[in-house]
Task: inverse folding
């Protein structure tokens, strides 16, 4: 399959793709769309930035009967930000096909959401908690759903989300078509889905990884004492090659405090963390997507679903809990064929967690001192010290300089 025109999809969808200047399907799209169009269940695994939303979104639009004014498709996402992003893509496909979509997530009033459902919404994109609230209040029914998507399925089926997801699935049509998509699909996810999918086609996008996976240069610095903060400031003062920088911390409190420090020092930053109201979160993201904020500090709330092409650097100021989260964090850069840089700062107390992350990644990354000199370790690779091949990581290209301070 070389172009979208070879798929049996609506002319209106092809026009939308043309307007988006998308012509050739990515690997995950080429392998997922045909079985989904045939009505098959699919488990799709592909790295971030590989086009998973269109992989399930184009067949979703084909599954809708515009004349039927009830919820026919349900897309569940783990975060509000991802729901908004997916909703934006599906709305572009749905509008010219005269299909109604709506977003259902927390932090917004129930009234407009209920009105949209009663107004004939045929596609609902939402987070499990708020969707379940509507089901419990009787303001939404999902027994007419014929197409169900779990986006970022590894997180959707984790212990935190699993109970709500299970309750929602129990109320859907048992004959529905189900699609599960994620950048990582742990073995336990496959086991859980055995009871929710029927004869599913399992697709792992690995054949074209060099072409479609991100080109990311990895640099790991080992810091002591105050070196971590000093190094962060030095990095933020360096040109970021024409793009924006995303800095990850571990806790809401820590990210907020770091943001206060940097702002007082004259850096133009915004902070994204879970204690913000939904309106505040959307304003922060809107500014960042528009390129008006050169540096965004965030917790793991931004590790998934933040699809911003101009992010050229991700800095892990604090480590995530798992290798999967590390993969999602660094996947915010180097998207859709662009190159990026992932910088990780670790202190002595971080070494056990870092070794655990490396085991999960199946890679050992060479560590550098803050001055850039190589740190000799028994586990060090003998290859090029600052670049690690991990699913398509390769050479980077130069971009115009960019300053982070006002």
Result:
């Amino acid at each position: 399959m070389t172009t979208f025109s070879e798929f049996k999809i609506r002319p209106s969808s092809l026009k939308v793709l043309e307007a988006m200047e998308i012509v050739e399907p990515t690997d995950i799209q080429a392998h997922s769309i045909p079985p989904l169009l045939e009505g098959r269940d699919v488990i799709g695994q592909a790295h971030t930035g590989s086009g998973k939303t269109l992989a399930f979104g184009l067949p979703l639009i084909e599954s809708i009967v515009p004349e039927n004014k009830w919820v026919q498709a349900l897309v569940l996402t783990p975060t509000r930000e991802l729901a908004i992003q997916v909703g934006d893509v599906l709305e572009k496909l749905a509008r010219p096909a005269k299909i109604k979509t709506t977003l259902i997530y927390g932090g917004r009033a129930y009234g407009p959401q209920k009105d949209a459902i009663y107004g004939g919404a045929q596609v609902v994109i939402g987070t499990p908690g708020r969707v379940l609230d509507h089901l419990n209040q009787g303001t939404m029914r999902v027994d007419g759903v014929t197409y169900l998507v779990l986006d970022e399925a590894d997180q959707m089926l984790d212990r935190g989300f699993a109970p709500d997801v299970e309750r929602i699935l129990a109320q859907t049509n048992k004959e529905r078509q189900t699609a599960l998509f994620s950048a990582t699909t742990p073995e336990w996810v496959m086991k859980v889905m055995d009871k929710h999918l029927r004869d599913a086609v399992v697709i792992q996008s690995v054949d074209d990884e060099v072409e479609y996976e991100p080109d990311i240069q990895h640099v790991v610095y080992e810091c002591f004492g105050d070196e971590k903060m000093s190094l962060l400031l030095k990095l933020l003062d360096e040109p970021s090659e024409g793009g924006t920088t995303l800095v990850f911390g571990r806790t809401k409190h820590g990210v907020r405090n770091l943001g206060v420090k940097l702002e007082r020092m004259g850096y133009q930053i915004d902070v994204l963390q879970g204690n913000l109201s939904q309106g505040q979160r959307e304003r922060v993201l809107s500014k960042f997507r528009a390129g008006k904020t050169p540096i965004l500090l965030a917790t793991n709330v931004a590790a998934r679903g933040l699809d911003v092409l101009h992010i050229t650097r991700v800095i892990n100021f604090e480590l995530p809990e798992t290798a999967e989260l590390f993969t999602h964090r660094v996947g915010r850069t180097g998207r859709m064929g662009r190159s990026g840089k992932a910088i990780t700062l670790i202190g002595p107390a971080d070494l056990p967690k870092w070794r655990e992350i490396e085991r999960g990644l199946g890679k050992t990354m060479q560590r550098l001192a803050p001055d850039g000199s190589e740190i000799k370790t028994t586990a060090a690779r003998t290859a090029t010290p600052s670049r690690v091949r991990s699913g398509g990581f390769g050479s980077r290209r130069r971009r115009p300089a960019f300053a982070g301070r006002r």
Observations:
- DSSP finds 15 helices and 14 strands in the chain.
- Residues 335 and 391 are 13 Å apart (CA to CA).
- The two ends are 48 Å apart (CA to CA).
- The first strand starts at residue 42 and ends at 45.
